[in-house]
Amino acid sequence: MRNIHPVPDSIVAKIQMFLLQPIPPKESQFRRKWEDQCRALPPGADEVLLETLRRGTPAEQDSALIALKSIGWDVMERGEIGDKTYMLRRRGDKEWQTIRPMLQLD
């Protein structure tokens, strides 16, 4: 079982605001800047991003997935809309965790 430390509300709010930004197109300078911002998120960001996968909107989930990849997580997405599952682990970890989002739109 992983040890979850409470993340201060101010950090949660900062990360949630960041996730509302549109994701720039791949291979653009804006995307590289966006991913740099992901890597600069405060400690505890990974817990907030994982919770966003569980409870966020599909757009927030997409942002959280890319942010997690940027900060060193291996991420796989399985299934179709309405039956989506995420498999995740920190790079270097052996165990995968599975998240099935609560909000999935058809």
Describe the structure.
The protein is α+β, with helices and mostly antiparallel strands and 106 residues long. The protein has a domain at 9-74. It contains 4 helices and 3 strands; from the N terminus they run ααααβββ. A 3-stranded antiparallel β-sheet has the order 1-2-3. A hairpin with a 6-residue loop joins strand 2 and strand 3. Helix 1 (9-19) packs across helix 3 (45-55), helix 2 crosses helix 4 (58-70) and helix 3 runs antiparallel to helix 4. The longest helix is centred in the middle third of the chain and has 13 residues, at 58-70. It is globular and about 30 Å long. The protein starts with 8 loop residues before the first helix and ends in a 7-residue tail after the last strand. The model has no long low-confidence stretch (mean pLDDT 88).
Concise description?
43% of the residues lie in helices and 14% in strands. With 106 residues, the chain is of the alpha+beta class.
